[in-house]
Predict the structure.
Amino acid sequence: MKSSKINVQNEINALLIEDNLDDAHKFETMFNKVQQNSIFFHHVSSLTVAQDYIHVNFINLIILSISMPESKALEYINKIQIINSSLAIIILMEQDDRVFILKAMQQGVQDYLIKDEGDGYLVIRAIHHAMERKQIELQLTSMAYFDSLTGLANREYFHITFSRAIEQANRNKQSLSLLFLDLDHFKDVNDSFGHLIGDKLLIVIAERLRSCLRSIDFIARLGGDEFVILLDDIHTSLSVKKLVNKILISLSRAIIIETHEITISTSIGIVIYPDDALNTKDLLQYADIAMYKAKEKGRANFHMYTPELSTEIINKMNIKNDFRDAILRQELRLYYQPIINIPDNKIIAAEALLRWNHPTRGLLSANEFISIVEKSGFIIDIGEWVIAEAIKQTKKWQKNLLPKFGMAINLSATQLMNKGLMSFISAEIKQCSVKASTIKLEITESLLKKKNQQTRKILRNLSKQGFIISMDDFGTGYSSISYLKHFTIDILKIDHSFIHNYNSTPDTADFVKAIIDMAHALKLTVIAEGVEKEEQMTFLRKLNCDQIQGYLISDPVPALEFEQLFLNRNIQPPKALFLGGGGII
Ligand code: C2E
Ligand code: MG
Ligand code: MG
């Protein structure tokens, strides 16, 4: 019997499991009669001994003597495959039992031999045949179950393993964690370096992930840049978090591929069986949802699933889906909020604000859906609709209410960066004969964060055409004066958070005063947003703020209502020529 561990390719080490020593001896003698130098013979007397033997010796084929009842034999075959699934198996039978042989083959046995039939040559032939079949089977399985790029398990294999793991955890009353990973901005890597580099990056990522795990942990690539990891009971939620941090740190190291140094991160969603859900479908979906939340938190982050998260995300998904129909069903409306000139208390302009008359949820404000729409790609179409509609309305009001009536229109980053914006908006004002100088384009501070050359150019061009550029929500972002100098800005809108809190901390009042003074020094017009109380108005008036907007004057309202507001406030009844009976004309 050989015992040293041999690991030479093309060498076959066959292990006979036979408890009858006479039979084992007979078999070995028959085998030895044939001259061959690539097959080595080993023998053990039980499956238990075989288990240890396989661990220390390089065995690639088992010859299992079947001298037990059928069900026991099938169980043995199963156990061998659990010990090592790449072993070829031949069964050695007392007699030719075709029905059993068929069952055994279905269970993964490659060939069979009948005791006392045939000779050494037949044994050798069966061994070669079994090895070949096993090889082909292994290749087919690896094609079906492994990802050819990274060598990790693929989606199919993951689903099988996941179901089994759940069954096992259920039987053993254990828990199980599922981690769902999605690389951050992987598309950018593909777009800027090409798919070949993208593929190489995925291989490195797969290796790094693998090296963070124990050998018993299961990892698969679901496709694209999505990976999943299954961790069994030993991981408490604390150790899951530890592992997740290890992964985040491991991925944060720059990856060098050819001449490129690439930095990439991942977002991770975590669910726990049985706490969060009981079936694989829900668990996977919840892990995905938690992963999205991790992305929202700013990427390179993880998030543990909670039921509230589902409601939140499902709401968002519904909004995104319903929005498609909103356009077709014409459920979008523009509301207008008056802007007051502080010195004379008159309405001089309006801000157009988008509303969605949702069939079941009622009238939704922009902040309930605009950020979702922004990500969906509809924003350009919607934005154009808003621009066209608001400009038409401006024309009407310049004709009927006030010749220089101003209209503020909000633009998102995507809209501003869109190449067609300038020609679209210019065509619209031309068609309605509205002057560019009466249209105020509102952009937010975050848009200017990068001091991006392109943004600067776009704003300069719009400004050259005569449009007024207004910086919205000022104070919530970087609040840098350098932005104001750097970009062509005409109006500054102080965010409502400062107006609401102006008297809660002394600093806030000083800050508002400083903003107004600074803006005036730069010859900018200052508008205060979100004015709700008379005292806020008084405070702003004292600081020489130019204009205000807020619930104190009016909520955003439909066009007809706006006209009424305008008439009530701006067109006062002619003063009586004489008051009371003085007799003087
Ligand atoms: P924003 O441009 O800063 O608009 C002001 C928001 O404050 C509006 O919310 C308005 O209804 C609300 N508001 C007005 N007065 C008061 C007040 O006294 N107190 C408080 N607490 N809030 C007040 P809304 O309509 O939900 O819009 C939210 C944001 O959505 C807007 O902020 C704007 O950035 C964006 N948005 C609205 N309409 C459009 C649009 O047509 N296109 C684009 N791209 N964005 C839009
Ligand atoms: Mg605005
Ligand atoms: Mg604002």
